[in-house]
């Protein structure tokens, strides 16, 4: 059976739920749905981007007399399937990053079906699609569905002991998310520790990818009310992201990547949420321990650093109003710190944001 040729006998199956379908996409005419709601959901998630692409891969192959022609057609179909797989995986990942889990499901399902058509069942190449489905399911609170997807992914990894460290870090990160959602914090921390191990092996200890694992561990410690451990990890993550964003700002200033898109909308939203969580944690820590001067001093430094990071993030995402707002907050926190090491870079960013907002005015020099 070819991709999309979903039938029970002669019945077409819904693209999303695999129930008998009664509606047909009027454009490609090779995709079917059980009702208008599923048709609209699929269109919003991914189908609009792949509608025309699906025609050639879901239409029965013409008859070829020569084997060479059949082989050529097969190769071209595989290339088209690979392209659809990449598009749908990227769309699902973007929806998940934006926290729009319902929209992610149809795209992730399509990515999985295309990968199965290309590679076959029970192979490690299917793991990324299963992990996306699992993460979207966790976001929706469908934990049994997430557990089923992760069981499939674990089985495929076990059958392929030579799989990459990137796959292993993503598997353990998603397993950690599942156990955290179920309240099994010990198992969650174990998987996040494995996530950090494999991510550091692949990307380095100072990578923002590795920092993502530490951030998730800190969230678990916060749920366990182990705030000292959580804040210590948050500080490490904040420093890593500040260093990363500072390097991006430096390359921007030197026009090394002129016209480059540093963050797409979904990634920007994801990083913003992470930095904002850490900023809020610092504020709560001061509210909890208002009498401790050392805690207050450390918190002011962390809030300056995190606000500066948020200012750089929004600047690189071309939202100069938010960049200016966070830059000014960073300046306020920085001025209250005994060691004001960020002052110069914060003021430079404020001036750049003001220049973008008022290009015809001379930048205001802040003292």
Describe what this molecule looks like in 3D.
- This protein has a domain at 236-255 and 265-285 and 297-355: Serine Threonine Protein Phosphatase 5, Tetratricopeptide repeat (Alpha Horseshoe).
- The chain contains 13 helices and 4 strands.
- It has a two-stranded antiparallel ribbon with strand order 1-2. The chain has a two-stranded antiparallel sheet with strand order 3-4.
- With 367 residues, it is mainly α.
- The protein has helices at residues 36-58, 67-97, 101-119, 127-140, 143-159, 165-182, 185-203, 208-223, 227-253, 265-288, 293-316, 320-335, 343-357; strands spanning 7-8, 11-12, 23-24, 32-33.
- It is globular.
- Pfam families: zf-MYND (PF01753).
- Residues 14-51 form the MYND-type domain.
- Keywords: Metal-binding, Zinc, Zinc-finger.
- InterPro entries: TPR-like_helical_dom_sf, Zinc_finger_MYND_domain, Znf_MYND.
Key words describing this protein structure:
Serine Threonine Protein Phosphatase 5, Tetratricopeptide repeat; about 375 residues; disordered N terminus
Mean pLDDT: 89
Portion in strands? under 5%
Structural class: mainly alpha
Overall helicity: over 70%
Order of the strands making up the biggest sheet: 1-2
Spell the H/E element sequence: EEEEHHHHHHHHHHHHH
In total, the number of strands is 4
Largest beta sheet, briefly? Answer: 2 strands, antiparallel
Give me the number of helical elements. 13
The CATH topology of the domain at 236-255 and 265-285 and 297-355 is given as Serine Threonine Protein Phosphatase 5, Tetratricopeptide repeat
Shape: globular
Rounded Rg:
24 Å
Name the CATH class of the domain at 236-255 and 265-285 and 297-355: Mainly Alpha
Runs in which pLDDT lies below 50 for 5 or more consecutive residues are 1-10, 362-367
Give the name of the CATH architecture of the domain at 236-255 and 265-285 and 297-355: Alpha Horseshoe
How far do the termini sit from each other?
Answer: 71 Å
């Amino acid at each position: 059976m070819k991709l999309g040729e979903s039938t029970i006998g002669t019945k077409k199956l819904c693209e999303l739920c695999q129930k008998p379908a009664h509606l047909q996409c009027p454009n490609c005419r090779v995709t079917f749905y059980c009702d208008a709601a599923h048709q609209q959901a699929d269109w919003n998630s991914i189908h609009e981007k792949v509608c025309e692409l699906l025609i050639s891969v879901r239409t029965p192959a013409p008859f070829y007399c020569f084997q060479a022609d059949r082989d050529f057609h097969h190769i071209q179909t595989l290339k088209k399937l690979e392209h659809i797989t990449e598009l749908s995986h990227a769309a699902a990942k973007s929806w998940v990053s934006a926290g729009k889990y319902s929209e992610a499901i149809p795209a992730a399902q399509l990515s999985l079906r295309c990968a199965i058509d290309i590679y076959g069942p029970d192979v490690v190449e299917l793991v990324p699609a299963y992990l996306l489905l699992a993460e979207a399911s966790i976001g929706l609170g469908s934990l049994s569905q997430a557990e089923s997807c992760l069981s499939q992914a674990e089985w495929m990894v076990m059958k392929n002991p030579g799989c990459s460290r990137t796959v292993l870090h993503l598997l353990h990160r998603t397993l950690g998310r599942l156990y955290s959602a179920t309240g099994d914090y010990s198992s969650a921390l174990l998987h996040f520790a494995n996530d950090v191990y494999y991510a550091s092996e692949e990307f380095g200890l100072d990578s923002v990818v590795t920092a993502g694992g530490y951030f998730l561990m800190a969230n678990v410690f916060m749920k366990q009310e182990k705030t000292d451990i959580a804040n210590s990890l948050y500080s490490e993550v904040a420093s890593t992201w500040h260093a990363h964003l500072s390097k991006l700002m430096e390359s921007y200033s030197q026009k090394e990547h002129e016209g480059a898109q540093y963050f797409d909308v979904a990634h920007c939203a994801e990083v913003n949420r992470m930095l904002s969580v850490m900023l809020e944690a610092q504020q709560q820590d001061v509210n909890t321990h208002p009498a401790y001067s050392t805690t207050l001093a450390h918190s002011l430094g962390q809030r300056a650093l995190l606000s500066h990071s948020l200012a750089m993030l929004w600047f690189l995402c071309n939202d100069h109003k938010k960049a200016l707002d966070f830059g000014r907050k960073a300046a306020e926190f920085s001025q209250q710190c005994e060691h004001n090491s960020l002052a110069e870079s914060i003021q430079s960013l404020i001036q750049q944001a003001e220049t973008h907002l008022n290009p015809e005015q001379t930048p205001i020099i802040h003292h």
